[in-house]
Amino acid sequence: MRDFTLKSYRSLLHALLQAGYRFLTFEEFLSQPKEAKTIVLRHDVDELAWNALEIARLENEMGVKATYYFRIVKQSNVPEVIVEIVSLGHEIGYHYEDLVLADGDEKKALDTFESHLAYFRNYYPVKTVSMHGSSSSKYDNRLLWKNHGLSDYGLLGEPYLSIDFNQVFYMTDTGFAWDGGKYAARDVVENGFDMKFHSTSQVVRCVERGDFPEHAMILAHTLWTDNLLQWYGLHIREFFRNNLKLIAKRNRFIGNLYGKMVKWYWKK
After folding, report:
1. What does the pLDDT look like over 20-33, one tens digit per residue?
2. Which of 93, 101, 117, 258 could, after both became Cys, cross-link 248 (CB 3.0–4.6 A)?
3. What is the percentage of the chain residues whose pLDDT exceeds 90?
4. Is residue 244 a part of any domain in this protein?
5. Which domain holds residue 189?
6. Residue 198: count of CB within 10 angstroms of its CB
7. What is the CA radius of gyration of the chain?
8. Strand positions, DSSP E, 183-254
9. Does the residue 238 lie in any domain?
10. 252 CB contacts (<8 Å, ≥6 apart)?
11. In whole angstroms, what is the distance from residue 56 CA to residue 106 CA?
12. Which residues are 215's β-sheet partners?
């Protein structure tokens, strides 16, 4: 069976619901007392915003809430999508990359961060943000908070800064696989869980056995689709992109070339 489709995503949600897990937005997770069996569903909308809407509709149909982080780029920032996702009861936040966009200029980055945050607050009272990995850049967007506090902007938290991942299991589909961490530059965390998965069906079986952790953050990007042509196209693209990222880590010339390609893609 094809993985990373809406059908396989539904099977994951169904298994978690049947096992008694409660779904919280990240804002709720940070502001409410911790209960047993809680899941934070997080979606980084790097692109394919309309796919995010399909995921949001599916979650709403199943009585599940999630958190959606939108970038400022046009491939992510689609107002009608944001409005409908909010109307479905989900949380939205800002998927910030201002330090990279400002080429490391901290003051400029803070100014644009404040402006972009205010923009997204036109749609939702944003209380959480999450950094965009910007794997082709030498700048880590999280360093924006080295000399400043999230609370200065009325924010409760940021996943990579506000969660003890030794207590909360972190699972991400980066690289179009649940074990694609080797392709990630910054979408990685240190944790004490000796648990890895490759496919969604493996996760489902773990949940059904009762072996899945009590608390988890699950990051699913917007590549999940039932559209056959899009699914094959994305798998081919991710295969080449993942391998290019690995080569770029070892070869400066390829790394610079990859960085230019990434900048062109997001500006086109």
Report:
1. 999 999 999 999 88
2. 258
3. 75
4. no
5. 6-227
6. 12
7. 18
8. 215-219
9. no
10. none
11. 34
12. 38
